[in-house]
Design brief:
Elements: E1 3-6, H1 22-25, H2 27-33, E2 44-51, H3 55-66, E3 71-74, E4 90-91, H4 99-106, H5 108-132, E5 139-147, H6 151-163, E6 168-171, E7 182-191, H7 194-202, E8 206-208, E9 213-217, E10 221-224, E11 228-236, H8 249-252, E12 254-264, E13 274-278, E14 285-289, E15 292-301, H9 310-321, E16 326-337, E17 344-347, E18 355-359, H10 365-381, H11 388-391, H12 402-417, E19 434-440, E20 443-449, E21 454-459, E22 470-472, E23 477-479, E24 486-488, E25 493-495, E26 504-509
Parallel strand pairs: 2-3, 2-11, 3-8, 5-13, 11-18
Antiparallel strand pairs: 1-9, 4-7, 5-7, 6-7, 9-10, 10-11, 12-15, 12-16, 13-14, 14-15, 17-18, 19-20, 20-21, 21-26, 22-23, 23-24, 24-25
Helix pairs in contact: 3-7, 3-10, 4-5, 5-10
The structure holds FE2/S2 (inorganic) cluster.
FE2/S2 (inorganic) cluster (FES) binds near residues 464, 465, 467, 485 and 497.
């Protein structure tokens, strides 16, 4: 049987980001959830196999199991080890200033369906947490999007959200340590500890960790290193969809990175009464978690315009707004973005009717995952769902997004051809603790020079579709500007869509 998809290499199972998030570093989380889940051993026959054990995959499996469907989750590392562990954990239907945009470009019916699905997702979290008695630091709070200079935009968004039946109101008073021009408040939103929730909801599920999918065949046979699974339906929830053809998700998605820190509160600072986000993409995000304030900023396209000072910017803001507070944890995250700001949820492609996908949550993965879980459950169980068409992956994009698709495609072509150019950098010119691209023994390599004068060589050709990797000094990684794959300084894969390490050529000491 000809495979739909086949792995073309290997990647190591031990790569971790430079900074781990508060969710995985808290002692309580570690001690509660430090149990090994089994690997797959042998063959299986199942109705649904979910590939990817993040929040979207686990919620989808949970929803299906609730309906009596036999389902398993396959995760190549541990559950929650991707994007879920790095999120801010805000559960809200307020997704930036999206509603005026949806009304303008998608029309009232679709905008209303998007709003209703996400607001229902907020309520569904409360329902599930209460039903399963999940202790995950859940609390109901208002969510705010504020502007420092444009009251008009905020007022328009309040009107759009109200028109769509959302719990929106305008305010100028917040608990932020600076005056805002205006803010839109959504009441009865929530925040939680995403990893505690994930482990709580996973308890009754069949999950195989450290089980890497090697091949998917058209008849639903999934080949892993430890056994084969025959599934009637396959759901791909691996953050970035890894099957390039069909689907072409690499043309219709890009990835963005952002940076976060958890500050230990000084008792003189006042605790926030809600979750906050600046409407300006260069602004900051805020939320509490116990005695910490989570502060984030610095969003940029992965592999492009890497800021060297993202954490410095957060530190400066922290000492200006919250004097006396200390940064305890700092980490980064990466999100898949769609041109029309609506996730892709539904059939992977027209030619693969039994494969489903959920991706492109545009930084709103908590509600997006819940919406995805309900839609995919309904599609598989043949339950009517009146929001499904809004999220269909093969939908037409509205006007104004064409240039974004074009930008992604052109970027791929330009960077593929960049391999033909000869790099100017020389090994000796690379500063200690930094990296560069050099031609060495006839080959083009990315070279990282550590503080002890060791040189680490990797190939700069991205194993996904061949674009040139760029060094990210802020996070000491090789990042791909085309679709956002990332690798550590040794070439170990950190973020997909690449499905293998970039070749760790050698490590040597110069004489
Ligand atoms: Fe697609 Fe690098 S070529 S992520």
């Amino acid at each position: 049987m000809k495979p739909i998809w086949k792995a073309n290499g290997t990647f190591s199972n031990n790569t971790r980001e430079k900074g781990e998030s508060i969710w995985v570093q808290e002692k309580e989380t570690i001690s509660n959830n430090n149990h090994e889940r089994k690997k797959l051993t042998g063959d299986l026959n199942i109705e649904v196999a979910v590939i990817g054990g993040g929040l979207a995959g686990i919620l989808t499996a949970y929803m299906l199991q609730q309906r009596g469907v036999s389902v398993i989750v396959l995760e190549c590392f541990e559950i929650g080890s991707g994007i879920t562990r790095n999120t801010t954990g805000k559960i809200t239907s307020q997704h930036g200033l999206i509603y005026q945009r949806l009304l303008r470009y998608k029309g009232e019916e679709r905008a209303r369906a998007y709003a209703a699905a996400n607001q229902r997702a907020v309520q569904k979290y409360e329902e599930v947490i209460n039903q399963l008695h999940i202790e995950c630091d859940y609390s109901k709070l208002s969510n705010y999007i504020f502007s420092l200079d444009n009251e008009n935009r905020i007022q328009q968004e309040v009107q759009a959200a109200k028109r769509l039946g959302l719990p929106a109101s305008l305010t100028r008073e917040t608990k932020l340590p600076f005056q805002v021009k205006a803010a839109i408040r959504f009441e009865n939103q929530a925040q939680f500890h995403p990893i505690k929730f994930l482990h709580g909801i996973s308890k009754e599920l069949t999950i195989y960790e450290h089980t890497k999918v090697m091949e998917i065949q058209k008849d639903g046979l999934i080949l892993t290193e430890q056994g084969n699974i025959r599934a009637k339906f396959i759901v791909i929830t691996t953050h970035y969809p890894f099957i390039n053809f069909p689907g072409l998700y690499f043309i219709k998605l890009h990835q963005e990175r952002e940076y976060l820190a958890a500050l230990e509160w000084d008792k003189n600072n006042s605790i926030l009464d809600g979750m906050y986000l600046d409407a300006d993409p260069n602004g900051f995000t805020f939320r509490n978690h116990q005695n910490y304030l989570l502060l984030g900023s610095g969003s940029h396209r992965a592999g492009k315009q890497n800021p060297e000072d993202a954490y410095v910017k957060i530190m400066e803001a922290a000492s200006k707004w919250y004097p006396g507070s200390k940064i305890k944890y700092a980490w980064s995250n990466q999100d898949c973005m769609t041109p029309d700001k609506v996730p892709y949820i539904g059939r992977y492609s027209a030619s693969t009717p039994n494969i489903y996908v959920a991706t492109g949550f545009n930084k709103w993965g908590m509600t997006g995952s819940m919406v995805a879980a309900e839609i995919i459950r309904d599609m598989i169980c043949k339950i009517p769902n009146n929001t499904e068409k809004v999220f269909r992956p093969n939908r037409m994009m509205f006007s104004g997004t064409g240039f974004m698709l074009k930008d992604t495609a052109i970027s791929t072509i330009n960077l593929l051809s960049e391999h033909l150019r000869i790099p100017k950098d020389k090994l000796r010119e690379i500063e200690k603790g930094n990296a560069g691209v050099v031609k060495y023994k006839g080959q083009k390599y990315g070279v990282y020079r550590d503080l002890e004068d060791n040189y680490f060589f990797v190939t700069t050709k991205c194993p996904h579709l061949g674009c040139s990797l760029a060094w990210n000094q802020n996070e000491m990684s090789w990042d791909c500007p085309c679709h956002g794959s990332r690798f550590d300084y040794r070439g170990n894969l950190i973020n997909n869509p690449a499905m293998r390490d970039t070749f760790d050529a050698c490590r040597r000491k110069l004489k």
